Each structure stands twice: as C-alpha cells, then as structure tokens.
Write a sequence for this structure.
C-alpha cells in the first residue's frame, strides 16, 4: 500500500482563527456565546428586581447620606459630608457605635466558645446526640421578639424568675434592663442564648468531617488525654470552621436590633443604644432620612468589612 | 437514516483552537468511531454534529441538508451521553418518552393538569406509551418501567439512555463515550450489544471513544484524531496495519508498537545500530527513520553476533499470550515481543536472545512522523 | 480492686457528659419553660415572691382565650404564613432561572452578572431600609402585603446557592434535554427544579424561618394591625398590656413561636440541614 492511498488529513492548511471567524461575525458570536438571548431573558426579572431593590437602594443610601433630606420635605440639598460631621460630633452616635462593638465583643466569644464546648460534649458520646442537638437549636428557631418578651418577664425586678432565684440564694436582686451597667450585658446574654445553638451546629458539622483515623494516629503517637487530642487534632483541624463561625457571629451580632427595640429602646440613658437602633429612630421616628442614611453607610461599611474577611476565609477553606 | 458530512469544521474557545478544519464523510448506515486521546477535540466535534456547540466555520450536512443553523432537537439526531444523563425524577418509561412527548404534544398538552382537558392528549399519549413499551421490550427493560434511574444498575441506565435515543427513530445516533462509566466486564458485554443494535437498526452511528478496543471491535471505520485534526480515516484493519503516521501507529495497538531508530544508508536500506534490517526506504541517504514493528511480528531466535540482540528484562503473562520486554542496545524503550506460552517457557529472565522480523512487517516513518513508502526487500536476518 | 472500679470509671465520662449537657439544656429551655408556666397561671399566682412552676389553679383556658380575644393572633399567624410562602414562591420563580443561566449558559456578561450577585449578598437588608422605605412610599405600597413580600422576591443569596447546586448537575443532562427538544425555559422547570428539590427545600426552610422571624422591615413598612406579622403582633400585644397581665401575654408569645418550633421538632434534621446549609451565608 502506498502513501497516496492513505487519506491523510491535510496538515499545514490551518488558517489563523481570527481571519476565519471575521468572515462571519454572527456565526462567531453564536459560537462564542450561544445562549446570549435566552440567558438575558432568564436573568431579566432577577436583574431588574436586584437593581430596583438592592443595588439601586445601596447607591441611594450613599447619595442620601450627602443630603439633608427629611421625609415629607418638599426639597433637599446636597450638604457634602455634613451628616458624617454631625455624627462625629454626636455623643449618642459614639455611644451607639461603642455599645454595638461591646455587644459584638461579648456575644462573639461567648456564643462561639459555648457553641464549641457544647458541640464537643455532644460529639464525645453516642447517646442522645440528636436530642441535645435539637434542644440547643430551638432558640435559633424561636421568634426572637416573642422570646424577648418572655425574657422581659423572667428579668422582672420583683417577680421575674431570675431575681426570685437570686434572692432564694441570698444574692442581691437587680432591675437588669433598667440599670445602666446591666442593660447591655443583659441584652448580650440574650444574644448568646439565641445564637450559640447555631454555632454548635456548624461546629458539629466541622467535627464530623475530621477523619477518625487522625485520632487513632494521635493516640499511637502518645496523645492519650482528651485535652492533648483536642490540642493536636481537633483544634487545628477545626481552625477554618472556627474562623468562619467567629465571623458569622460577628456579622449577626452587629445587626442587633430586635431585643433593643422591644426591651430597652436604647436606654436607660443610651446605655444600650446600638447603631441599627439609632438608624431606625433617626430614619423612621424623626424622619431625618439623610442622617439615617449616613448611619446606614457606617453600618454597611462595618458589615461589608466583616463579610469580605469572611469571603476570604471561605476561599481559604475551599483550598484547605 | 442519513449520511453525515463535515466540511472544514473549525472551532476555538478563547484563543485555543480545538478543531483545525475537519473534513469527514460518514456513510449512511455505517458505524464510525472518533478515536483519540482526551482533549483531541473528538467530543467537541460530536457536539457540533449534534448542534450543542456551534462551529466557528465550516458546515455540517445531514443527508443533503446543511444543518448549521438548525437547533439540536430539530436535527433529528439522538445522543447517548457518557453519564447517561437520565432525568433523575422521571421513571424509566417517562425518561424514554420525553423526546416523543416534546415532539408530538403541544405546550398545552404537556402542562400539568391542564393537559387532560386538551383534546387529543390522550390519543397521542396512548400512542407514545405503546412505542415506549416496544422500545423497552427490545432492550429488555420491560420489568423496570416504573423504576427511577437511581434504582437502576449502571448497565440498566445505559440501556435506558439507548432506549431514549432509539425511540425517536433518529437519522443518526451520536454516542459520547457511552461505556466509560461501566466496569470492565460490563463494558465488553455492552460492546457486543451496541454492535448488534447497530446491525439491527441499520442507522448511522457516530461513536466517540478514547478506548481503541471499543473502536476496533465495533466500527466499520475509525477516524483517529489528535490535537484537533483527523490523522487517518480507515477500517480497523487499515488503521492497524497501515498507519498513516507514527502517531496513529503508536496510538493503536496494545501493547504499543515498538519504535526503533534507524538510519538510511547509501543503498537506501535502513540500518539499526549499524546492522542492515533489509528494509528499504525511499528516503535521503543519511536521514533518520523510525522503524515501527508490532510485538507479534517479532520472533525470538538464538543470538548471533551479527543480529539484533536483547536481554530479557521482564515478562507479562496474560494467560493466552506472554509479552516479554527486551532491553536492546541502542534502544531507550524496551522492545516488546508477543510469545505463545510454549515459546515463553523456553525463555528465562536475564537470557540474551536474538530478534528477527520480516522486513515487510516493519513500517517506516520519517523524522516528522509521516509514513515512508517501503521498497520491498528480501527477507533478512537482523 | 481494678475490675470492680473500671466499669465505673468507664461510665464516668459518659455520666459527666450527660450531667453537663442536661444542665445546659435546662438553662437553654428555661425561658420557654417560664413562658409556658406563666401562661398557665392566674394573675394572682404570677406575682408571687416564690418560684412556682405549676400553678395551684390552672388558668390555661382563661389566658389562652384571653390572648385570642384581645389580639387577632390567628390573623397574625395567617399573615406570617401568607407572607413567608409568597416570598418563597416568588423567590423560586425569580431566582431559579437566573441561577440556571449563571450556572449552565455561556453568554457575554456572565462574570459581571455573577459579581453583582456576590456583591448583593453582602448587603444587609437593614442598610437599605431608608431608601427602600422611600421607594415604597413613592409607589404607594407601604402598609400592604406587597410591602412585606416584594423586597425579598430577589434573593442574591438564593441565586448564589442554587447556582452552586446547579453547577453540580452534569452538563450532559442539560444537553440531553436540549436534544430531546426541551426549551431553555423548560429546562429550568422540567429538569433543573426537580433535580434540585433538596437544595430548594433547604433554601425554603431558611427563607421561611428568617422571614417568619423578621422584625425590622415589617416594623418599618407596616402600620395596620390587620397586616401584622407574628413578631409585630406579639410586640404590639405586649405594648398594649404594658406589663400588667403576663398570663395572656405569655400565652400569646407561646402561640407565636409554636408553629415554627413544632415544625422544627417534627423535621429536626431537615431544619438543621436547611439552616446550616444556608448558614454559609
């Protein structure tokens, strides 16, 4: 058989892509993005709504924070950064920011620590696992407003369960929600109560994904006590989950509002004033929309910062 | 039923050219395999035929129709996918019925609930069910009609996928590595089933695979592809015996063809390590050539000083055959030789043996990999 | 000595675990227990200077019927159901096609569209409340079901979640559907939705729970008591009672949390999976 009878593919006749595709632009587009039209149609409703309800309002809140707009006023003017300057001068704003950060500083470590401890306790045995898990998760599900009302009565200065218990133990009683030193910590305690079950579930998921044989290896390597196994295996392998839980808790506790609005109204004397509550009162009680927008921008900046850190962590965890 | 013709198909993503101008005619009723390593563009080519991808230039013809602008569902082709692509929420019967329902029922007739109120739905539906039942029966799926894909074995899923392709009586079947998710034993079995199905239906089959055994056993013709080009089209015998270039020769055959590096002497004979092989090449004297020789074309003999010699380095016993690996001076890769059990018993690891082959069995390739036409020489002892 | 001691010492960690967990569980459930206990007491037994868990005279019927009489609790619960289900249904209709397009279609602008989705996820709902309030004010939609539902029809998070799920659906399935003659729009509803039922369920649980419990936006957007969602309703009930009649108030609070908590107890696993799956937010 000779060379000629073999149907060899023609080599070396390949023209550059660009030339051949320029011939028919439509065909090239169809080849590159064959679903242009249908994708546009499928994205349109979500796109329009996102523009109208999320992206537009974000732009609007940035712009409004530069105006003196008040709800119901006939006009408004741009006043530059005056709203922000006013905030910087406002003792209440600083108080709100400080309180918010203090709230986060209490709730995050407490709810993460408690969540981890409970998860470890549950994982350390086999019996009643799902029962415990369910019990600790109930506060996550229960409507916080209703529970806040229950807490309010539990904390009643005279007839509340907490004070009854304290006096039964011979300890001094307190008006937890109306003593300036106690209002914020009390709200934070409610926050911890509500949140640690959520963290526990995330930790449980993280614990399950730690391979069992690592513990066996650790034991063979001489790490026999529960503590040394925790130090050698659990804690390092749980690291990314922990970071993630910390940030999620931070973002969530930064948004504290419900309990403040129902239980303390920011009082007594601004002792429990928080950012979102300030924004709410400025925007929806005094209708100073411009100022409320400025507070919203500050709030947004903090949450975005935390979320960006979280996005970084997730990215890392994917590679982990 | 129809032939499929490809004319100058080019396709690129971003900057990379996936297909560099493919011309190919697939005759009506034939079984053609697109064979090549992963990334050679064979699946993309199949998807272009199906209409799931759009080529940058060139034309696809089915029968006499140019179908470049025709939607996949309207090309009247069926496709069997590697992952079977069964609808997980539908029963076997419903999976097979989908292509018929989509074609024969109107939008209203497919709407949940409303469909019952639309005139004609039930008559068409009865017809569809009868056809689905017939197809299922042919494939031995009759007992599984109400199962969901999740409750089926790999082989059963495969059959449902084939059933869904068959039921619409397409002009051609496109199969994209349909066996590669099955275990080895089932794969061999399904090879036979698909070949039988092709004979029974008599429809054009275009079969994409990277497994040469599948291509060799089922196809009327094989198109060997590499890096976006078709290297050779031919019957399995042609591809195996008369490879058009070194890449085809090396891709086809297991174990691989032995490639020995030789030089053309002034007389036009190919010399290996100074020894004349008796192979004559039409090539410039002094140029290097690759001599390809299949493991079954080499015989072992007693070593003699003048001939090609090798030391037995390793043996692979496959039961019927034994492949022995010989370390040969001047060759980087071991030379593999196929022996019968009886022959193999006469050898021992570490033995030095002589190698001989008919010059006519050797295939010569130029430095750029192209086949060099041989000049038939006399039998030689190397 | 040893063989006698070892079963005990082996059981000890288990006992300690249960002791610790039971104590914590009791603390966790304390607010619920006190709430329910109070809802069963007559006024005279609520204001006592001793801890009494079970009343001497059961006033359950009085308190619960008083709760239903003084506030339209059923109406609040119905509103909660209407609003959360409407939100979820619209979220599916709006966001599933977008998620499919972002996961499976090739088109110019996909990267940008996805980047916008990722950005939108970052924006907490409260941050845009002021302009959103003005928008709904302008549209005359404040104080209506629309005000409660429309802002949440778009869920960037839902798009993201469903896109991630759709990415794991084999491309072959989509191609098979195309070969079978199903349109792209049909693929979303006839192929992707049925395939994604577990993910849609998880998202649904997340969506319903968070909007049932949401307080901030309804507080801003709603004035009329007949539109109150459960949290607004129970807060309003409390403001009217002004801390005098705790029996009916605790009964009302119990009624408000009951539907979700009961649903949770029945489908614990699904709820926990749903919330943690989406907890990645």
């Amino acid at each position: 058989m000779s060379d000629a009878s073999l149907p060899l593919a023609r080599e070396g006749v390949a023209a550059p892509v660009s030339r051949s595709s320029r011939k028919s632009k439509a065909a090239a587009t169809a080849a590159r993005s064959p679903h242009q039209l249908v994708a546009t149609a499928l994205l349109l409703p979500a796109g329009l709504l996102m523009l109208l309800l999320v992206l537009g309002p974000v732009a609007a809140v940035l712009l409004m924070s530069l105006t003196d707009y008040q709800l119901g006023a006939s006009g408004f003017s741009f006043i530059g950064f005056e709203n922000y300057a006013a905030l910087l001068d406002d003792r209440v704003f600083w108080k709100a920011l400080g309180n918010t950060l203090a709230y986060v500083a209490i709730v995050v470590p407490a709810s993460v620590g408690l969540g981890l401890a409970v998860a470890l306790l549950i994982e350390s045995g086999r019996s009643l696992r799902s029962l415990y898990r369910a019990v600790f998760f109930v506060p996550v599900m229960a409507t916080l407003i209703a529970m806040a009302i229950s807490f309010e009565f539990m904390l009643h200065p005279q007839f509340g369960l907490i004070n009854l218990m304290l006096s039964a133990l011979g300890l001094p009683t307190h008006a937890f929600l109306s003593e300036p030193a106690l209002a914020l910590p009390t709200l934070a305690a409610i926050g911890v109560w509500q949140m640690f079950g959520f963290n526990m579930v995330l930790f449980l998921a993280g614990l399950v994904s730690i391979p069992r044989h690592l513990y066996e290896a650790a034991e063979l390597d001489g790490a026999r006590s529960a503590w040394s196994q925790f130090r050698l295996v659990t804690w390092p392998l749980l690291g990314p989950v922990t970071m993630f839980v910390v940030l999620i808790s931070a973002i969530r506790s930064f948004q504290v509002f419900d309990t403040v609005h129902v239980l303390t109204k920011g009082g007594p004397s601004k002792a429990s004033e928080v950012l979102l509550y300030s924004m709410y009162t400025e925007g929806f009680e005094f209708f100073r929309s411009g100022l409320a927008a400025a507070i919203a921008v500050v709030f947004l900046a903090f949450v975005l910062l935390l979320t960006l850190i979280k996005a970084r962590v997730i990215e890392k965890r994917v590679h982990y | 039923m129809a032939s499929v013709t490809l004319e100058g198909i080019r396709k690129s993503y971003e900057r990379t050219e996936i297909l560099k101008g493919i011309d190919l005619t697939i005759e009506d009723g034939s079984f053609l395999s697109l064979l090549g390593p992963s990334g050679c563009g064979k699946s993309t080519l199949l998807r272009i035929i199906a209409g799931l991808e759009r080529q940058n230039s060139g034309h696809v013809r089915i029968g006499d129709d140019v179908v470049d602008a025709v939607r996949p569902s309207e090309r009247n082709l069926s496709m069997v996918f590697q992952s079977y692509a069964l609808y997980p929420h539908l029963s076997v019967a419903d999976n097979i019925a989908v292509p018929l329902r989509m074609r024969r029922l109107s939008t209203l007739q497919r709407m949940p609930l409303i469909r019952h109120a639309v005139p004609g739905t039930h008559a068409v539906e009865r017809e569809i069910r009868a056809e689905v039942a017939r197809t299922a029966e042919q494939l031995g799926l009759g007992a599984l009609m109400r199962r969901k894909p999740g409750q089926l074995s790999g082989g059963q899923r495969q059959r449902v996928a084939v059933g869904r392709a068959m039921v619409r009586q397409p002009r051609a079947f496109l199969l994209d590595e349909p066996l590669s998710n099955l275990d080895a034993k089932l794969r061999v079995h399904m090879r036979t089933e698909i070949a039988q199905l092709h004979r029974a239906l008599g429809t054009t089959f275009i079969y994409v695979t990277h497994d040469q055994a599948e291509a060799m056993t089922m196809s009327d013709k094989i198109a060997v592809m590499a890096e976006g080009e078709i290297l050779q089209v031919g019957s399995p015998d042609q591809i195996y015996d008369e490879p058009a270039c070194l890449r085809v020769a090396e891709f086809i055959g297991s174990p691989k063809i032995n490639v020995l590096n030789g030089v053309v002497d002034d007389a036009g004979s190919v010399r290996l390590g100074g020894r004349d092989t008796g192979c004559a090449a039409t090539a410039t004297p002094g140029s290097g050539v690759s001599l390809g020789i299949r493991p079954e074309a080499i015989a072992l003999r007693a070593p003699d000083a003048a001939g090609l010699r090798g030391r037995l380095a390793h043996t692979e016993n496959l039961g019927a055959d034994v492949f022995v690996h010989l370390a040969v001076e001047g060759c980087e890769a071991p030379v593999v030789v196929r022996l019968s059990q009886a022959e193999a018993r006469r050898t021992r690891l570490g033995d030095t043996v002589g190698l001989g082959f008919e010059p006519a069995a050797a295939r010569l390739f130029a430095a750029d990999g192209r086949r060099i036409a041989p000049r038939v020489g006399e039998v030689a002892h190397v | 000595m040893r063989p006698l001691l070892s079963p005990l010492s082996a059981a000890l960690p288990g006992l300690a675990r249960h002791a610790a967990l039971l104590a914590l569980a009791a603390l966790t459930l304390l607010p619920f227990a006190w709430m329910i206990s109070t809802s069963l007491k007559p006024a005279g037994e609520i204001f006592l200077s001793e801890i009494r868990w079970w009343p001497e005279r059961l006033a359950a019927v009085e308190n619960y019927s008083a709760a239903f009489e003084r506030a339209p609790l059923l109406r609040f619960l119905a509103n909660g159901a209407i609003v959360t289900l409407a939100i979820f249904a619209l979220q599916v209709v709006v966001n599933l096609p977008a998620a499919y397009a972002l996961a499976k279609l090739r088109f110019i602008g996909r990267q940008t569209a996805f980047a916008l989705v990722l950005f939108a996820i970052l924006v907490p709902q409260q941050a845009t409340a002021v302009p959103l309030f003005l928008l709904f004010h302008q549209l005359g939609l404040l104080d209506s079901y629309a005000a409660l539902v429309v802002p949440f029809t778009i869920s960037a998070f839902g798009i993201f979640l469903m896109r991630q799920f759709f990415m794991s659906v084999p491309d072959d399935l989509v191609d098979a559907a195309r070969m079978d003659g199903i349109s792209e729009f049909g693929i979303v509803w006839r192929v992707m939705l049925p395939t994604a039922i577990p993910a849609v369920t998880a998202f649904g649980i997340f969506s319903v729970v968070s909007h049932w419990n949401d307080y901030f936006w309804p507080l801003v957007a709603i004035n009329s008591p007949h539109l109150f969602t459960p949290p607004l309703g129970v807060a309003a009930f409390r403001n009217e009672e002004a801390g005098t009649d705790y029996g009916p108030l605790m009964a009302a609070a119990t009624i408000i949390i009951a539907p979700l908590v009961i649903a949770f107890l029945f489908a614990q696993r699904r709820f926990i999976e749903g919330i943690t799956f989406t907890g990645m937010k």
